[in-house]
UniProtKB/TrEMBL annotation:
Signal peptide: none annotated. GO terms for molecular function: kinase activity; RNA binding. This is ANTAR domain-containing protein. It comes from Kribbella pittospori. The keyword Transferase applies. Residues 165-226 form the ANTAR domain. The lineage of its organism: Bacteria, Bacillati, Actinomycetota, Actinomycetes, Propionibacteriales. Transmembrane segments: none annotated. It comes from the Bacteria. The keyword rRNA-binding does not apply. Keywords: Kinase, Transcription, Transcription regulation, Transferase. SMART domains: ANTAR.
Amino acid sequence: MIAANASEAFANAAAAMVGPRDVVGTVTGLLEDCGALTGAAALGILVHDGQDRLELLSATSHTAAELELYQIQTDTGPCVDTLSTGQQLHVIGSDQIIQRWGEIGKAIAAAGFAQIHTSPLRWHGNVIGGLSAFHRTTEPLDDSALHLSQAFADVAAVVILHSMDVGEIEIADRINDALQGRIVIEQAKGVLAERHDVDMAQAYQLLNSMPRDTGETLTTIATRIIHQAEQPH
């Protein structure tokens, strides 16, 4: 269930952190709540994997995932810029987006987005990732929405690295652990797409709806889907 307000969203994330570890599922829930509360149509998070490489951790839609992966492939784009500077970024208008990021900007505009806002995931002075929020309207975000987006990014960082004293090696280990969850989810999407004869975007929506229906974690459900597909018929 989408949170009614930021307090509920952050309380849900806190509750998830003291339960079975499901980083991807918890972060995906945060992204969905962030979108609902700030008006973003799609969101995604890129993270450093500890070897100076970017990886997609989570996205609220197949389109957002594709745009984030495109940024990784070309090493350019709004989230890449935020990871480099450690600062929030806010660009309004398709022309401005295209002018700033070229082919990536064209892909963002072609997907129907007219405004992009990014926020860094910060941890003890380090930038471990970036949150991208894609908007379909050109109505500028107010200060409260900008602050709220950063708050969601900060909470996402805590979800990924929730302990007080985490060194650089352990940070990399935890991020890689979270990324393994992402791989499981991608595999489950493929299974669902084939099983239900739907495209990857529809499979992604179907998978994301399952934890809300059963109360199980996203990673647990994805793992079960893969195991079921591997069983002989």
